[in-house]
Amino acid sequence: MPAREAAPIASSPTPSSPRPASAPYVEAYSGHPLAGVHAPHIKPADIKPADIKPAERGVRPSEILRPAEPKPAAAEPAPYVSPIEQTFGTTKTATDHKAADFKTPEAKPADVRTPDTRTQDHKPTPAPARSIAPPIDFSSFSEPVDEDMFKTPAASRRWWPAVAAVVLVALAGIAVPTVRRMVSSPPVATDGTLSVTTNPPGAHLFVDGVERGVTPTNVALKPGPHSLEVRGDGAPRLLPITITAGAQLSQYLELPRAAAAVGQLNVRTEPAGARVSIDGVSRGAAPVMVSELAPGEHTVVVESDLGTVKQTVTVEAGVTASVTVPLAAAEGAPVSGWLSVSAPSDVQIFENKRLVGSSQTDRLMVTAGRHELEIVNETLGYRAVRTVQVAAGKVTPVKIEFPKGTIALNALPWAEVWVDGEKVGETPIGNLQVTIGTHDVLFRNPDLGELRQKATITLTEPARLSVDLRKK
Prior knowledge:
By secondary structure, this protein is mainly beta. The protein contains four helices and 28 strands.
């Protein structure tokens, strides 16, 4: 279309005339640089709608505030949506919200003014309206969740009891053996125990002929009968025993102590002060006690101004021998002899209420002739009178026999009883007649062992002895 020259613009204001209905209405854009108080006005009659290009057409205020219509998107492949997003909906991030708030500014339209808009120039320019971001679509969050996804198929539910049963059986197979080990009863004892104690200790213990140690000791044995042998300083002790499974059998044995390997000799002279030698070795002046002599015969020589006397003395192991040697008396002096007193226990010898000696002395020198002697043991209540005839230069033996006393014996629960190695019966035993003095009493129970005690029997009152083998 050929260009048409524009009509001349009036330099002076012209009264506005009503806008024809057919004329296009163009609103002035107050932000255009040409808009102002002195901006020229174009008459509506001079402008035809066909002459207004789209770029020169004014923009209505309603069009400025109206959100731009989205352009149809090009055909693109659908983005990947995960199963979770399909189930719970797509979640918009902060970046998505910022992008929604951002709007690309549109190009400003050309300022086309009409005479009718001249009166608008003196009005204050309104602030440009802020574009409003399109509302966020929350419909995706309200999409219904497919509940079938969380439902277990009926076929799977039918297998659950079977699976649970298999798991329980497996756990029981692990737990039951563990609990059995924790609460199981201890193993039943198959052996018994033998406990042996001796006095003195240190004896060798033999069971069925096999050495099993030194007392005190504990030995594990199979149930049943066994032969027990204890070897100490004296003769071996043999005991039959019976072992019970899971039980302990205790045996207590009193063993004789070892006899001394040497003896002693007490030498006295009448008068005292003579020189004494034994087996050619000087031992000093009498009276003298010579120890550590080997058992057997020894030669004793006594020398003084009155002469020399030589004697042979027998020494026993563990025994103290005594000898009194009279020296040659002056002319007219009485001739002497000796007394040798033996008794089950030590006694004292008196003559005319004068102590002559005791039975511990091997020989007692007295004058030759007739003597009336009193034999006394205060502890046992024994007192006796003996008359003896002593020959000059001779040894006169005097043997003392004690009378019998009574003793009552008992043991708990019970025991066999031996007195001085001789069996006297089973407890209880009453009024047993035994020689006065100190005796060795042995109580023996096949299950509780042995217990050895010393009992002293006197003439003053009956003796009593009771033991409890359960409290050894």
